[in-house]
Amino acid sequence: MLANGGVGAKREEKGRNIQVVVRCRPFNTVERKSSYGVIDCDQNRKEVTVKTGGLNDKASRKTYTFDMVSSFPDLYREPLEAGED
Predict the structure, then answer these.
(1) 71-83 tens-digit pLDDT
(2) In the structure, what pLDDT confidence band is assigned to residue 57 with cuts at 50, 70 and 90?
(3) Is residue 32 packed enough to be buried (19+ CB in 10 Å), middle (13-18) or exposed (0-12)?
(4) Where are the domains of the chain?
């Protein structure tokens, strides 16, 4: 007995890709006072850069590329707009 989402549903999804989405929230007041920014989010390039060393240590930066990088409000607005088709 097959329920909705059984083997037939798996066949339909076989050709789909997994998308990874990252949300970068801004520092709160306490974090801003006690630290420097360690994460830079570039929505246009879909990249997140993590600084593991000091502020000027470019060798200790790691950049990751995602399918989508968004701010907190965009994270909720974009899926709602996509569902309006």
Answers:
(1) 666 656 655 555 5
(2) confident
(3) exposed
(4) 19-82
